[in-house]
Amino acid sequence: MAGKLPSARNKSISISLSSKEKIGIVVSDWNDEITSSLVSAARKVLELSNLQKNLIIVHVPGAFELPFAASLLCKKKNIKGVICLGCVIKGQTKHDDYINNTIANAFSQLAIDYSKPVIFGVLTTNNIKQARERSGGKLGNKGEETAIALLKMLQIQELISNI
Questions:
Q1: pLDDT value of position 91
Q2: In this predicted model, what pLDDT tens digit does every residue of 80-109 receive, in sequence order?
Q3: Which candidate in 95, 98, 108, 139 is catalytic?
Q4: Is residue 4 part of a domain?
Q5: Number of structural domains, the chain?
Q6: Is the pLDDT confidence value at 113 over 60?
Q7: Residue 59 designated active-site
Q8: Within a domain: residue 14?
Q9: Please, what is the average pLDDT of the chain?
Q10: Buried (b) or exposed (e) across 95-129, using 16+ Cβ within 10 A?
Q11: Domain range spanning residue 101?
Q12: Of 11, 28, 48, 97, which is the most buried if we count CB atoms within 10 A?
């Protein structure tokens, strides 16, 4: 198990954006019980950093559609980074493997192509119980962790751009 990131309740991460600069959140509507909890937690973290007016939230049908919407956002110069939230639960076929591998590669490529953080916030679980545990249950909320990761990457980007 990876080390727990600092909770947004204990520490806000400070970045400054102009009113025109935005952070995108792309969220899958598939497994909405889970993804709505993820997006809510991500929003709370970003609101603690006073970025509520800088958010653009886009809903897509499923996880496979996340990279397309993320790509459209990355093309916009005023978008500083994108958080991609979804939930793919293993079924009786290898469908989940194909989806997870495809979107992971796409997110990585988008980040490289556009020099913007594209954060992987897709739960890849074996069952709904595991998804619930990771979206506000006993294992925390990965939506919170993705927002913290985005803020840290924006800080790193700013630091490196000033070298």
A1: 87
A2: 999 999 999 998 888 889 999 999 999 999
A3: 95
A4: no
A5: 1
A6: yes
A7: no
A8: no
A9: 91
A10: ebeebbeebeebbeebbeebebbbbbbbbbbeeee
A11: 22-161
A12: 28
